[in-house]
Amino acid sequence: MPALHRLIAALAPLMPALRALAPQPVTAAERLAAFPTRGLPLSRPVDIRWNGHQIPFVEAETDGDLAVALGLVHAHLRGGQIALMKRVAQGRLSEIAGPVARDIDHALRILDYGHAADTVIDRMPDDSRAFAEAFVTGVNAYHALERAPPPEFALLGLRHEPYTLRDLWTIGRLAGSDINWVAYFGLLRERGTPGFAEAWARTLKAGANAVTSFTLDSRQVALATLLTATGRTGSNSVAVAAAHSASGGAMIASDPHLALSLPNLWLVAGMRSPGYHMAGLMVPGLPFVAVGRSLHLAWGGTNMRAASSDLYDVGALPAAEIETARDGDPHPLLAAGAAQDPTQPLRPDRQRRQGGAQPARRHHRPALDRA
Fold this sequence. Notes:
Distance between the termini: 50 Å
Shape: globular
Strand content: 5-15%
Number of strands: 10
Helix content: 25-40%
């Protein structure tokens, strides 16, 4: 009997995760009934209409209330996904997966997606910051009022944490990762070998897929999967001028070529307020429509397969020039510089001014070969 008691005690912490492996079916009506409608941080009534596919249309009397309601909707539909994306962007996967994710966290922390978040927040226009802060308020209000956490929380051992403006920008930077980094991880392994300079020049001229022609190790494959959101290679966008369409209106068709996943990378929503009227695809946790349309304008995006990141050889620089410490943890950095052949050493005279106004920082990041 004591042995049975010890076994039960050992398994007890696992019970929530085990139950999450087989969640009880929930009807659409039950899901909608779980959406809080009282005690919300709204100044005026807001209408949220849901179609048969659980796609919301939010109508608010003020732009601030629209932002709050969008935060509520995102938390309702993708609360678990937002919590997981936050931990990915912060390099905290080891909290979920244990030591097996340590190397990935190491790489993610070197990439340091939140590095510029505070600066971006400080420079946001007042109206943009107010809208983003209202969205964050909505996300947090939902979690404070929800009846039960999303099933992913029990499965992954997650705990609710306040969502912040800094989290929003860090996740946004993760969503905007340059897929060329994935190719760089493989190319950097060949650095210093005969033909590398030629291969690099050909890559810049022809563009590249996010996958190199030689095999990456398992850690690089895992990191590449995170950075590209398990995306397929390829992307396209087609625009037709109004003069060439049968309807007399301009048209655009965008296909970002992202793989199917559960939950999906996109959240579909529509909205209307005094300052906004649009519908389209949003990234969970971010208060903007990435691909969508209004009454008068449509927009999309595609990957140009262009070399939009530069690499620099900082191997000849003193260690103090390429490393700094934050909270006792060294973060390798790259020195700032103008576009330059990455096969050649960085020349101090090529350092540039960042953003056209601030002096070039002596410490810039990340050092991809260490990631």
